[in-house]
Amino acid sequence: MNFRNLVNFLFRTALIGGAAGLIISFFVQADVYGANLNPFNFMELLGLILFNIGLGLTFSVVSMTGFFAYLFIHRFGLNLFRSFWGAVQVLLIAFVIFDLIYFPYQGANGDVSLFWFVLMAFGILAYGWIVAKVKVKATNKKAFIPALFLMVVITSVEWVPGLQVEGTDYAWLMIVPLLACNTYQLLALPQVTKDYKKKEENTKTSKNAKKA
Protein backbone atom coordinates (compact mmCIF):
# COMPACT_ATOMS: atom_id res chain seq x y z
CA MET A 1 0.00 0.00 0.00
CA ASN A 2 1.41 3.38 -0.99
CA PHE A 3 1.09 6.60 1.00
CA ARG A 4 -1.86 7.88 -1.03
CA ASN A 5 -3.90 4.71 -0.50
CA LEU A 6 -3.06 4.73 3.20
CA VAL A 7 -4.24 8.34 3.58
CA ASN A 8 -7.49 7.55 1.73
CA PHE A 9 -8.01 4.50 3.94
CA LEU A 10 -7.50 6.50 7.14
CA PHE A 11 -9.63 9.39 5.85
CA ARG A 12 -12.57 7.09 5.13
CA THR A 13 -12.18 5.51 8.57
CA ALA A 14 -12.31 8.97 10.15
CA LEU A 15 -15.45 9.85 8.15
CA ILE A 16 -17.14 6.66 9.33
CA GLY A 17 -16.18 7.42 12.93
CA GLY A 18 -17.54 10.98 12.71
CA ALA A 19 -20.78 9.83 11.09
CA ALA A 20 -21.25 7.00 13.63
CA GLY A 21 -20.61 9.40 16.52
CA LEU A 22 -23.23 11.81 15.20
CA ILE A 23 -25.84 9.13 14.52
CA ILE A 24 -25.57 7.47 17.95
CA SER A 25 -25.74 10.89 19.61
CA PHE A 26 -29.25 11.36 18.17
CA PHE A 27 -30.37 8.41 20.32
CA VAL A 28 -28.17 8.88 23.39
CA GLN A 29 -28.71 12.65 23.63
CA ALA A 30 -32.24 12.81 22.26
CA ASP A 31 -33.37 14.98 25.18
CA VAL A 32 -30.55 17.48 24.56
CA TYR A 33 -31.40 17.73 20.88
CA GLY A 34 -35.06 18.10 21.76
CA ALA A 35 -34.33 20.95 24.16
CA ASN A 36 -32.55 22.85 21.38
CA LEU A 37 -35.23 22.14 18.79
CA ASN A 38 -38.10 23.45 20.87
CA PRO A 39 -37.50 26.35 20.99
CA PHE A 40 -35.12 26.22 18.03
CA ASN A 41 -31.58 27.26 18.97
CA PHE A 42 -29.39 27.09 15.86
CA MET A 43 -26.03 27.87 17.47
CA GLU A 44 -26.47 25.41 20.34
CA LEU A 45 -27.69 22.73 17.93
CA LEU A 46 -24.78 23.33 15.56
CA GLY A 47 -22.33 23.20 18.46
CA LEU A 48 -23.83 19.92 19.66
CA ILE A 49 -23.61 18.38 16.19
CA LEU A 50 -20.02 19.50 15.67
CA PHE A 51 -19.07 18.29 19.15
CA ASN A 52 -20.44 14.79 18.51
CA ILE A 53 -18.81 14.61 15.08
CA GLY A 54 -15.53 15.64 16.69
CA LEU A 55 -16.01 13.02 19.38
CA GLY A 56 -16.57 10.38 16.71
CA LEU A 57 -13.46 11.53 14.86
CA THR A 58 -11.46 11.25 18.07
CA PHE A 59 -12.66 7.70 18.62
CA SER A 60 -11.82 6.89 15.00
CA VAL A 61 -8.20 7.81 15.77
CA VAL A 62 -8.32 5.47 18.78
CA SER A 63 -9.67 2.78 16.46
CA MET A 64 -6.93 3.35 13.88
CA THR A 65 -4.26 3.11 16.58
CA GLY A 66 -5.78 -0.09 17.91
CA PHE A 67 -6.11 -1.57 14.43
CA PHE A 68 -2.47 -1.07 13.51
CA ALA A 69 -1.47 -2.34 16.95
CA TYR A 70 -3.58 -5.43 16.19
CA LEU A 71 -1.69 -6.00 12.92
CA PHE A 72 1.58 -5.95 14.88
CA ILE A 73 0.20 -8.17 17.67
CA HIS A 74 -1.14 -10.68 15.13
CA ARG A 75 2.21 -10.96 13.35
CA PHE A 76 4.07 -11.16 16.68
CA GLY A 77 1.65 -13.83 17.94
CA LEU A 78 2.15 -15.93 14.81
CA ASN A 79 5.92 -15.78 15.21
CA LEU A 80 5.83 -16.50 18.96
CA PHE A 81 3.05 -19.09 19.32
CA ARG A 82 2.99 -20.40 15.73
CA SER A 83 0.23 -23.04 15.42
CA PHE A 84 -1.01 -22.32 18.97
CA TRP A 85 -1.76 -18.65 18.21
CA GLY A 86 -5.37 -19.46 17.31
CA ALA A 87 -5.95 -21.17 20.67
CA VAL A 88 -4.28 -18.26 22.51
CA GLN A 89 -6.62 -15.82 20.77
CA VAL A 90 -9.68 -17.86 21.74
CA LEU A 91 -8.55 -17.86 25.39
CA LEU A 92 -8.02 -14.09 25.28
CA ILE A 93 -11.49 -13.59 23.78
CA ALA A 94 -13.04 -15.67 26.58
CA PHE A 95 -11.04 -13.74 29.19
CA VAL A 96 -12.16 -10.37 27.81
CA ILE A 97 -15.82 -11.45 27.68
CA PHE A 98 -15.56 -12.41 31.35
CA ASP A 99 -13.92 -9.07 32.16
CA LEU A 100 -16.66 -7.16 30.34
CA ILE A 101 -19.17 -8.77 32.66
CA TYR A 102 -17.34 -9.02 35.99
CA PHE A 103 -15.50 -5.72 36.40
CA PRO A 104 -18.26 -3.34 35.24
CA TYR A 105 -20.72 -5.23 37.45
CA GLN A 106 -18.41 -4.88 40.45
CA GLY A 107 -17.95 -1.20 39.65
CA ALA A 108 -21.70 -0.65 39.56
CA ASN A 109 -22.00 -1.80 43.22
CA GLY A 110 -25.22 -3.63 42.49
CA ASP A 111 -26.97 -0.57 41.04
CA VAL A 112 -27.23 -2.27 37.63
CA SER A 113 -28.49 -5.81 37.11
CA LEU A 114 -25.94 -8.46 36.09
CA PHE A 115 -28.21 -9.27 33.14
CA TRP A 116 -27.36 -6.00 31.37
CA PHE A 117 -23.62 -6.61 31.59
CA VAL A 118 -24.06 -10.14 30.26
CA LEU A 119 -26.21 -8.77 27.44
CA MET A 120 -23.59 -6.12 26.65
CA ALA A 121 -20.70 -8.59 26.54
CA PHE A 122 -22.50 -11.14 24.42
CA GLY A 123 -23.87 -8.39 22.19
CA ILE A 124 -20.28 -7.42 21.31
CA LEU A 125 -19.39 -11.09 20.87
CA ALA A 126 -22.38 -11.64 18.56
CA TYR A 127 -21.55 -8.58 16.48
CA GLY A 128 -17.92 -9.65 16.25
CA TRP A 129 -19.03 -13.15 15.23
CA ILE A 130 -21.13 -11.74 12.36
CA VAL A 131 -18.29 -9.50 11.15
CA ALA A 132 -15.85 -12.43 11.35
CA LYS A 133 -18.21 -14.54 9.23
CA VAL A 134 -18.33 -11.77 6.61
CA LYS A 135 -14.52 -11.62 6.72
CA VAL A 136 -14.32 -15.37 6.10
CA LYS A 137 -16.55 -15.08 3.03
CA ALA A 138 -14.36 -12.29 1.67
CA THR A 139 -11.06 -14.08 2.38
CA ASN A 140 -10.70 -17.57 3.89
CA LYS A 141 -11.60 -19.69 6.92
CA LYS A 142 -8.33 -18.88 8.71
CA ALA A 143 -9.44 -15.26 9.05
CA PHE A 144 -12.30 -16.04 11.44
CA ILE A 145 -10.46 -16.14 14.77
CA PRO A 146 -8.18 -13.11 14.08
CA ALA A 147 -11.24 -11.12 12.96
CA LEU A 148 -13.18 -12.10 16.09
CA PHE A 149 -10.12 -11.24 18.19
CA LEU A 150 -10.00 -7.74 16.71
CA MET A 151 -13.71 -7.09 17.11
CA VAL A 152 -13.89 -8.35 20.70
CA VAL A 153 -10.48 -7.99 22.36
CA ILE A 154 -9.03 -4.93 20.61
CA THR A 155 -12.35 -3.08 20.60
CA SER A 156 -12.81 -3.78 24.32
CA VAL A 157 -9.32 -2.49 25.12
CA GLU A 158 -10.05 0.67 23.11
CA TRP A 159 -13.36 1.02 24.99
CA VAL A 160 -11.82 0.99 28.48
CA PRO A 161 -12.03 4.81 28.97
CA GLY A 162 -15.74 4.72 28.11
CA LEU A 163 -16.37 2.00 30.68
CA GLN A 164 -14.62 3.95 33.42
CA VAL A 165 -16.90 6.98 33.10
CA GLU A 166 -19.97 7.03 35.33
CA GLY A 167 -23.21 6.58 33.40
CA THR A 168 -23.83 4.91 30.04
CA ASP A 169 -24.02 7.87 27.63
CA TYR A 170 -20.29 8.20 27.06
CA ALA A 171 -19.91 4.42 26.77
CA TRP A 172 -22.47 4.37 23.94
CA LEU A 173 -20.95 7.42 22.25
CA MET A 174 -17.61 5.60 22.22
CA ILE A 175 -18.44 1.98 21.43
CA VAL A 176 -20.49 2.64 18.28
CA PRO A 177 -17.75 4.62 16.43
CA LEU A 178 -15.17 2.05 17.57
CA LEU A 179 -17.20 -0.86 16.23
CA ALA A 180 -17.99 0.96 13.00
CA CYS A 181 -14.35 1.94 12.36
CA ASN A 182 -12.93 -1.45 13.30
CA THR A 183 -15.46 -3.18 11.06
CA TYR A 184 -14.57 -0.97 8.11
CA GLN A 185 -10.81 -1.35 8.61
CA LEU A 186 -11.04 -5.11 8.99
CA LEU A 187 -13.15 -5.61 5.87
CA ALA A 188 -11.71 -2.86 3.67
CA LEU A 189 -7.94 -3.26 4.17
CA PRO A 190 -7.61 -6.49 2.10
CA GLN A 191 -9.53 -4.88 -0.77
CA VAL A 192 -7.42 -1.72 -0.62
CA THR A 193 -4.24 -3.83 -0.65
CA LYS A 194 -5.60 -5.95 -3.49
CA ASP A 195 -6.47 -2.89 -5.59
CA TYR A 196 -3.00 -1.46 -5.01
CA LYS A 197 -1.30 -4.71 -6.07
CA LYS A 198 -3.51 -4.91 -9.16
CA LYS A 199 -2.64 -1.33 -10.06
CA GLU A 200 1.07 -2.07 -9.62
CA GLU A 201 0.79 -5.15 -11.84
CA ASN A 202 -1.03 -3.16 -14.54
CA THR A 203 1.65 -0.47 -14.38
CA LYS A 204 4.43 -3.05 -14.78
CA THR A 205 2.57 -4.70 -17.66
CA SER A 206 2.18 -1.35 -19.42
CA LYS A 207 5.89 -0.54 -18.97
CA ASN A 208 6.90 -3.97 -20.32
CA ALA A 209 4.58 -3.53 -23.30
CA LYS A 210 6.15 -0.16 -24.13
CA LYS A 211 9.64 -1.64 -23.91
CA ALA A 212 8.62 -4.47 -26.24
Describe this structure in words.
By secondary structure, this protein is mostly helical. It has a domain at 60-204. It is built from seven helices and no strands. The chain has helices at residues 3-28, 30-37, 42-81, 85-108, 114-138, 144-164, 169-211. Helix 4 runs antiparallel to helix 5 (114-138). The radius of gyration is 20 Å and the shape is flat. It starts with a helix and ends with a helix. The mean pLDDT is 90.
Mean pLDDT: 90
Note poorly predicted spans.
none
Reading the helices and strands in chain order gives HHHHHHH
Report the helical percentage. over 70%
**How many beta-strand segments?**
0
The outline comes out as flat
Q: How big is the Rg?
A: 20 Å
Structural class: mainly alpha
Distance between the termini: 28 Å
Largest sheet: none
Strand content: under 5%
- Work out the helix count: 7
Keywords: Membrane, Transmembrane, Transmembrane helix
InterPro entries: KinB-signalling_activ (IPR024164)
Protein name: KinB-signaling pathway activation protein
Would you spell out the secondary-structure blueprint of this structure?
Elements: H1 3-28, H2 30-37, H3 42-81, H4 85-108, H5 114-138, H6 144-164, H7 169-211
Task: Using brief descriptors, characterize the structure shown.
flat; 212 residues; 88% helix; transmembrane helix; mainly alpha
